[in-house]
Amino acid sequence: MNRPMIRKHSATLHGHRTSFSLEDEFWVELKAIAASRSIPLAALISEIDDERSPDSNLSSALRLHVLSWLKNAIAAFKPENQPA
Predict the structure, then answer these.
(1) pTM for the model
(2) Is residue 22 part of a domain?
(3) Helix/strand/coil (H/E/C) assignment for every residue in the chain
């Protein structure tokens, strides 16, 4: 199994430059989420940053957002009477 590639990314949030590290797979999904919502990727990252708890870091918040988005997408396709 290939090891995931973690890359550093940078963004400007509320006028301040910040960086975070994400696996390529999470980065691809974040871009897909932004595209599906028709918002810039920077706006999505800023929104996630604004909503995260003060004791979590941005990288973790981004990963959790992707996980939540994908879980909700799966649930939307699941028939109502199917067990989990």
Answers:
(1) 0.85
(2) yes
(3) CCCCCEEEEEEEECCEEEEEEEEHHHHHHHHHHHHHCCCCHHHHHHHHHHHCCCCCCHHHHHHHHHHHHHHHHHHHHCCCCCCC
